[in-house]
Design a protein that fits this description.
CATH topology of the largest domain in chain A: Beta-Lactamase
Shape of chain A: elongated
Distance between the termini of chain A: 57 Å
CATH superfamily of the largest domain in chain A: GAF domain
Number of helices of chain A: 12
Strand content of chain A: 15-25%
Number of strands of chain A: 10
Oligomer: homodimer
Largest interface: A-B, 31 and 31 residues
CATH architecture of the largest domain in chain A: 2-Layer Sandwich
Structural class of chain A: alpha+beta
CATH class of the largest domain in chain A: Alpha Beta
Largest sheet of chain A: 5 strands, antiparallel
Radius of gyration of chain A: 27 Å
Helix content of chain A: 40-55%
Chain lengths: ~350, ~350
DNA sequence: GTTAGCACTCGCACAATAAGAGTGCTAACA
DNA sequence: TGTTAGCACTCTTATTGTGCGAGTGCTAAC
């Protein structure tokens, strides 16, 4: 059930106009502003067909047409041509991306920020997932007689630490043995595997070390592992929605903010999506709360593994061509940045 | 220029009513709902006086009165009686405060969260300021041949670290010497003093160590110090403002969110205020953007030193008695928590 | 000094009206 | 058979007018 060339053209024009103005589009507007060489009446007939086919809706009898999610889907899949960024645009974006960025986790947040500014939408980013990272070794560094820093080093070079307070003093020797034992038991395991290992048994012969380990170190160790596994969700440009006509109603705005406040839901939703650039339009979202929104996400990679996400959320009426291009450009850059600093092959 | 007993009573009634309803208060409402034993007409006369004195304003001729900032100030200073929390309330708040709290920085954020829920306003908190903390020692821990973890230990037991990538491999010995040298030069200094020390000269005799230090360690060291000095600003309950009639207009809401988005301004404003419980009402705020708001802050302490803040921001019409009590109770609890875990005298 | 009474003012909600934008249908045209 | 002009009709939105209610301020009486 293909659409005629002309219907496609009209649909495209309606989408273009509606994306620009946020107002329902009438037949005369199309005939006047888009050079299709047909009269409003003809356009009306076509519109009527398109509506019947589910591509357009009608807020009320005497108002113009609004594209449906199905129309946007068609547009994104078939009509839309990828908007190639010019070299100047690319340079400008890259420059802003790397401004004030000292560490990589920082880069993710910055990317979300730049993305929200460019698109004037709300952008989000997920910091790299570390399920695949492996423990390299564990170190216990005495600070004072009853304070110890527990340091976990992953094979990527990522280091995380926590301060542990002991219930009785421990000698440096004890700590060294403990650390050695832990390293022996954990190294090579991924972070999530490490959470499941039971190494208490390896202290069987030394009750005191075991007690020390169990009561003091383990809680801190688990906390740190969980902390490393924890994926940060950054959100930027929340206030942009106040400039979007769809949210000029206070209840809509409230709903949006309350939705964005449920970080856990958002995180779950984002982690769920596949690799590559994903566009989810309106009702295509399973969750009722997102069904007025479109979400565009892209994935960035480390070692060819998908590890994090970047994207925007906004009204279904958005500039999909522009947004997808920018999101893609940014994730490509992030992936490249990880390559350069993670690998050692430069210079 | 003191107010008569009766004027005070009337003013108090107006404030109570307006805080509750957010509607301008008329003379009949007061006479009906508050048992002052005087007729609306008398109240009207008094109101007229109060208005002339600057305690009340008049949105338009034929509408009730609204308390001015001056009235709230009088109320907070003179009329308001501190609302003592019942033991049950205290227990309930304390329980919620310590729910899911594993670390102290976490406690601050949690406190803001609980505060926002109790007051139905927007709450914020500043994590402890660390200007006074002193460096205890510095450690350089090799991870692999060209990766080193720089660890800074403060005398409070606070530990911070960063991963440093070296431009050429360094032996463990070199690192040990470097760390020793740094500890020698920095220990006992506060974090901010440390930022000003120039220890390059102490490597004068060892050009190679100096180069290594200067090019690789110093940037990471500075970054980590700045990171430790950095005071986190937590905000909770931003969406609460959608339930406040003052912000039912979309432009007002927008303005509020954009204001709260300027984290730096807010941080500066909060750090500026004095010790103790501070109530700043409407136009008393120097900054134009806060002059429709009231801000209540309180300080929490470590070792009797004021280190962090907790507070709420909302419309000038707020329950000052309740808010100040809760804010005070929470900061007291935070200060106590710091004492228990910082000191060693327990058990 | 206090109060009742009353005229007056304003804002707000509601209905009525007019204008405008857009559709859908019909009939004519190429 | 597809296209178009014309026209009646629908529905929204802005505007205007009206009445009501809440509240004031003033005056005169208590």
């Amino acid at each position: 059930m293909d659409l005629s060339e002309r219907k496609l053209k009209i649909l495209q024009a309606i989408i273009a106009d509606f994306v620009r103005t946020a107002e329902p589009v009438g037949s005369r507007t199309i005939s006047r502003n888009y050079d299709l060489g047909i009269s409003p009446a003809t356009i009306r007939n076509e519109m009527s067909d398109l509506e019947e086919m589910g591509y357009l809706t009608h807020p009320h009898t005497s108002s113009g047409r609004v594209p449906s999610a199905k129309a946007y889907r068609l547009y994104v899949n078939e009509i839309m041509e990828k908007k190639e960024l010019t070299q100047e645009e690319k340079d400008a974006i890259a420059q802003r991306l790397y401004e004030n960025v000292s560490e990589l986790d920082n880069l993710i947040e910055r990317a979300a920020h730049v993305l929200s500014e460019i698109t004037s939408l709300t952008a989000f980013a997920l910091s790299p997932g570390k399920e695949q990272e492996k423990l390299k070794y564990i170190n216990l560094i005495p600070v004072d007689e009853r304070t110890v820093v527990l340091m976990i080093v992953a094979d990527s070079g990522e280091v995380s630490n926590t301060t542990v307070r002991l219930d009785k003093p421990a000698s440096e020797d004890t700590l060294r043995v403990l650390a050695k034992n832990m390293t022996y038991n954990y190294s090579g395991k991924t972070l999530s595997e490490a959470l499941k290992v039971d190494i208490i048994k390896s202290f069987r012969e030394d009750a005191e070390a075991m007690a020390m380990f169990q009561n003091n170190i383990v809680p801190g160790f688990i906390r740190t592992l969980e902390d490393m596994l924890n994926v940060n969700l950054y959100m930027e440009g929340l206030t942009n929605i106040f400039s979007i006509p769809e949210y000029s109603d206070i209840e809509k705005a409230r709903h949006f903010f309350e939705m964005m406040d449920r970080k856990e839901d958002i995180r779950r939703k984002l982690i769920g999506t596949d690799d590559g650039i994903i566009v989810t339009i309106g009702g295509e979202n399973q969750e009722a709360e997102f069904c007025d929104c479109s979400i565009v996400t892209a994935t960035y990679h480390v070692d060819g593994r998908m590890v994090g996400k970047l994207g925007v959320i906004g009204p279904t009426r958005m500039k999909y061509d522009e947004v997808t291009s920018v999101v893609e450009f940014l994730t490509d850059n992030i992936s490249k940045s990880f390559m350069i600093t993670e690998g050692d092959e430069d210079e």
